[in-house]
Amino acid sequence: MSTNIKKVAVFTSGGDSPGMNAAIRSVVRTCAYHSLECIAIHRGYQGMIEGDFEAMNARSVKDIINRGGTFLRSARSMEFKTKEGRLKAYNNLKENGIDAIVAIGGDGTFTGAMIFSKEFGIPIIGIPGTIDNDIVGTSHTLGYDTALNTVCDAIDKIRDTASSHDRLFFVEVMGRDVGHIALNAGIGAGAEEILIPEENLGLERLLESLERSRRSGKTSSIVIVAEGDNIGKNVFELKDYVNEHLPFYDVRVSVLGHMQRGGSPTCFDRVLASRMGVKAVESLLDGESNKMVGLLNDKMELTPLEEAIKGHTEINHELLKVSDIMSI
Ligand code: ATP
């Protein structure tokens, strides 16, 4: 720990995710532990441009570890994508004596951080806060575990009504580019089929599978559909297609939507957030920059921001097999 960093800023940006408050708390308290000043920036990059800053101490972050969302609020800032906007942001940081930044957000937030750090030489460490789990360099992004539990719980509830009325439910979950939520929550909640962007099951095989389920004595079924699934039809078109081809099913659709982003973080996400906050601040003190903290093999590791956002997370093929076997 050999740098001249005295004042660290923290902000949340892009889509919110459960555990962001716990991460802010951890950054603020780690700063206090190392006798660093800590400044919170409200509303992400837009607040940085407008100088929406607030001094933090260890007590400023009491009673937030259990709260979803982000008390610093988040924003999408078009102005930060311009050189003039970033210069305004930098001038505000300098005026306030800020030497380093912890940025909590997703790939857009990290792209902005890389550009900003390159332009003005300010050290930045990222914390991956997004429910999609689509960032390379961490087995879990912040909020992913909470989202899985929220989705699993919602599917359990839908199953109650599905089995009471002999219904087939298509449940759409978040995941435009990746199917991690669909696959894991689908297995956890016992879904019959799981449609994800990484695989194309095919309409014929979907019908076959549903017919097989029916023949084997199942009277109700749940199919999980990730937003970006590859089958070529959205969830409502799927309902119409199956209605037409399998008239014995009473087919319904449930789109879970933004409730997947909310709620109190799980214990796993609170612990992860606490670890990530400590690692982020201590990495800045070690002279690191332009890197993201992540969980790999149960250890806190650093990955260059560039690799974190450019890489592509792989779907777990073992889980695909497990899902297939379980739906027999
Ligand atoms: P999520 O994955 O949940 O959507 P995110 O961090 O990817 O989160 P974005 O809206 O893509 O969310 O990015 C957050 C903010 O980062 C943007 O509003 C913008 O201010 C900044 N940003 C994104 N891309 C760039 C870029 N190319 N140059 C400068 N700033 C950027």
From TrEMBL:
Source organism of the structure: Pustulibacterium marinum
A GO biological process held by the record: fructose 1,6-bisphosphate metabolic process
NCBIfam families for this protein: PFKA_ATP, PRK03202.1
The protein's assembly and partners: Homotetramer.
The family this protein is said to belong to: Belongs to the phosphofructokinase type A (PFKA) family. ATP-dependent PFK group I subfamily. Prokaryotic clade 'B1' sub-subfamily.
Binding site for ADP: R25, S26, V27, V28, R29, R159, G190, A191, E192, K218, T219, S220
Pfam family, one: PFK
Reaction catalysed by this enzyme: beta-D-fructose 6-phosphate + ATP = beta-D-fructose 1,6-bisphosphate + ADP + H(+)
UniProt protein name: ATP-dependent 6-phosphofructokinase
Binding sites annotated in the UniProt record for substrate: T130, I131, D132, R167, M174, G175, R176, E227, R252, H258, M259, Q260, R261
PANTHER family named in the record: ATP-DEPENDENT 6-PHOSPHOFRUCTOKINASE, PHOSPHOFRUCTOKINASE
Cofactor(s) the protein requires to work: Mg(2+)
Family annotation (PROSITE patterns): PHOSPHOFRUCTOKINASE
Its biological purpose: Catalyzes the phosphorylation of D-fructose 6-phosphate to fructose 1,6-bisphosphate by ATP, the first committing step of glycolysis.
Domain Phosphofructokinase: 7-283
Subcellular location: Cytoplasm
EC numbers: 2.7.1.11
Enzyme kind, highest EC tier: transferase
Pathway where it operates: Carbohydrate degradation; glycolysis; D-glyceraldehyde 3-phosphate and glycerone phosphate from D-glucose: step 3/4
Inhibition and activation profile: Allosterically activated by ADP and other diphosphonucleosides, and allosterically inhibited by phosphoenolpyruvate.
Taxonomic lineage of the native organism: Bacteria, Pseudomonadati, Bacteroidota, Flavobacteriia, Flavobacteriales
Entry GO MF terms: 6-phosphofructokinase activity; AMP binding; ATP binding; fructose-6-phosphate binding; identical protein binding; metal ion binding; monosaccharide binding
Keyword Lipid metabolism: no
Keyword NADP tagged: no
SUPFAM superfamilies attached to this UniProt entry: Phosphofructokinase
